[in-house]
Amino acid sequence: MAYDYAKSELILDGLRNRREGWNGGNVDAPNPESIERARKWLRSMYADAVTSNTTWIDPHVSSNEDGNVTFEWWNGDKKLTVYVSPEESWYIKVWGADVVNEMSDGTAESMEERQDAWQWLMA
């Protein structure tokens, strides 16, 4: 399970070029601290996936309206979205349209939290 960091690193670097309103709306530019923290977080997430002996899927890399970095992965009907700010990282798991019964969220700081989220996605 090899992962080419160069592609994600290039996309993360490209986020630095986004300015306020980058999507035509009233959104913040990506925070440079979020970008650097996201770079380290993604490397940890990959290492955690390898440690848990599961398949790796390259993420979709972007930023949100608050200037945080976002990573998204899909596996069948499951979607895992991770948000990385300068101070913290958290996830949203989605497996249907019902926000009460088919979505959950939590922190994605520790190795255990990242591995649990990844194993959920890959199950």
Short description:
The protein is an alpha+beta fold. 35% of the residues lie in helices and 24% in strands. The chain starts with a helix and ends with a helix.
**Number of contiguous helices:** 3
Q: Stretches where pLDDT falls below 50 for ≥5 residues?
A: none
Class based on secondary structure composition and strand pairing:
alpha+beta
Q: Sheet bearing the most strands, described?
A: 5 strands, antiparallel
User: What is the gyration radius calculated from CA atoms?
Assistant: 14 Å
The backbone outline, from C-alpha atoms, is globular
Beta-strand segment tally: 5
Description:
The protein has 123 residues and is α+β, with helices and mostly antiparallel strands. It has one domain (5-122). 35% of the residues lie in helices and 24% in strands. It is built from three helices and five strands. The chain has helices at residues 5-15, 32-51, 111-122; strands at 60-63, 69-75, 78-84, 89-94, 103-107. A five-stranded antiparallel sheet has the order 1-2-3-4-5. Helix 1 packs antiparallel against helix 2 (32-51). It is globular, with a radius of gyration of 14 Å. It starts with a helix and ends with a helix.
